[in-house]
Amino acid sequence: MQSGFFRVDIDSNKLSNGFFAVRYRYSIDGKTFSISRTSLDELEEIILENNLPWKVTDQEKAVKTRAFDREFQNAKKRKKHVFDNKCNKAVQEIRDEYHEKVSRVLQEYQDKDYQQRMALIRKFVNDMNDENFYR
To answer: 25, 29, 101, 123: which has the fewest C-beta neighbours closer than 10 Å?
Structure first.
């Protein structure tokens, strides 16, 4: 999908899967190269750092692409903030649960020797690494 910028297109495969990626394609000595980023600003920065040409070929499409990119980046930031808060809360709950289970195991087996306790803890940690533990 054309973006309105020279050699830049929007990766429609990623767009159809709910992601946004812009790709800059160029050739050197018959070999084709591409640089892809999830933000138009990041792509522009990389292109200019590599001294490649960056220009607008279609003003209307470029304005629409830039506006869509900014809206998408803002939505991504809002979603990430909500996701981070949920993740931090979930991680803390898992840590609390882990601490509680380890304490319970150690209290249950406090009369056994150190090697047996360590074996139980290793088994517990392995169980925690199982995918079904968190469900």
So the answer is: 29
